[in-house]
Amino acid sequence: VQLVESGGGSVQAGGSLSLSCVQSGYDVPNHCMGWFRQAPGKDREGVAVLWIGGATTYYASSVKGRFTITRDYDKDLVYLQMNNLKPEDTGMYYCAADQLYGGTCRDATEFAYRGQGTQVTVS
After folding, report:
1. 22: closest CA among 69, 85, 75, 70?
2. How confident is the model at residue 6, as a pLDDT?
3. How many CA atoms, within 13 angstroms, populate the side-chain half-sphere of residue 39?
4. How many CB atoms lie within 10 A of CB 51?
5. Is residue 42 scored above 90 in pLDDT?
6. Where are the beta strands (DSSP E) in the chain?
7. What's the rounded Cα separation, in Å, for the pair 54 and 115?
8. What confidence score (pLDDT) does residue 25 get?
């Protein structure tokens, strides 16, 4: 399984960024995709999860209403649209994938597969 993120960068507070994740090698039709982040000196934080089979989404309370996770089924891409960014959103953002457990998706920080990450800096 390979996950490759892109789209990170630097932006001023209040701005927007869109992250992309292309996946390959994970052919389970009904699975979970998600994003988590990690800031220096802090624990990983699950940001958003998308249940591919059910098209259900989950968001951390810290980003709800500002971030949106979507998937382009034709291109096999997962996006994280981030609006109204805040300095506390700064960190390395990772795309992740895993199967369902008990018919639901776990927190993205617990997913079995992840990419190399892309840096997001909000000043």
Report:
1. 75
2. 96
3. 9
4. 18
5. yes
6. 2-6, 9-11, 17-24, 31-38, 45-51, 56-59, 67-72, 77-82, 91-99, 113-114, 118-122
7. 23
8. 83
